[in-house]
Specification:
Order of helices and strands: EEEEEHHEEH
Keywords: Membrane, Transmembrane, Transmembrane helix
Number of helices: 3
Pfam families: DUF6232 (PF19744)
Radius of gyration: 28 Å
Region (Disordered): 151-170
Biased composition (Low complexity): 158-170
Largest sheet: 4 strands, antiparallel
Structural class: alpha+beta
Strand content: 25-35%
Transmembrane segments: 44-70, 76-100
Length: 170
């Protein structure tokens, strides 16, 4: 038996698909398809908040430099304001790394709900429902590979149960 995917709630093998304790033998599964849900505004708003958090200190630094130039104060005051503004801008570096990581994970997870459906014993059944696009893609591909492997095995075995022999040319 080959395992194509395995996590805490989904296991795809060369014989069956198990989702949340429910097992569907590959021999009983027909067509498999997926549905994509609507975008989640919560996820999109979270991405916007991360973008604002990244831009905030940089905008503050630029405004500080502009303020220093606009005030026309002494060289010492102008240099102090510009220096503080540059430090604020540089301070965003370590924070930016963390924020970019969160942003990257947000795109990997996706902003939609995903469903995997299959025809099981003649009726449509929802196998999986998740908002994690990366995980969904891995599971969907594993099911495809398992079904392709199962159909190739069935084609290789003839109706009598023996392997087909090549015919001689006429």
């Amino acid at each position: 038996m080959i395992t194509y995917y395995d996590d805490r709630s989904v296991r795809v093998t060369s014989t069956a698909v198990r989702v949340d304790g429910r097992t569907y033998p590959l021999a009983e599964l027909g067509m498999v398809w997926h549905r994509r849900g609507n975008r989640s505004w919560r996820v999109l708003a979270g991405r916007g908040a991360i973008g604002a958090a990244l831009a905030g200190p940089l905008v503050a630094a630029v405004l500080g430099i502009g303020l220093a130039v606009w005030l026309h104060r002494s060289a010492v005051v102008t240099i102090a304001i510009v220096g503080a503004s540059v430090l604020v801008g540089l301070g965003v570096g370590p924070l930016a790394d963390v924020l970019f990581e969160h942003l990257d994970r947000s795109y990997a997870r996706g902003s939609r709900e995903w469903e995997m459906w299959a025809r099981w014993r003649g009726r449509p059944v929802r196998l999986l429902h998740t908002g994690d696009a990366l995980r969904f893609g891995q599971i969907y591909r594993a099911v495809q590979r398992a079904m392709e492997s199962a159909s190739a095995t069935q084609k290789a075995i003839g109706s009598s149960g023996s392997s087909p022999r090549p015919r001689s040319r006429p």
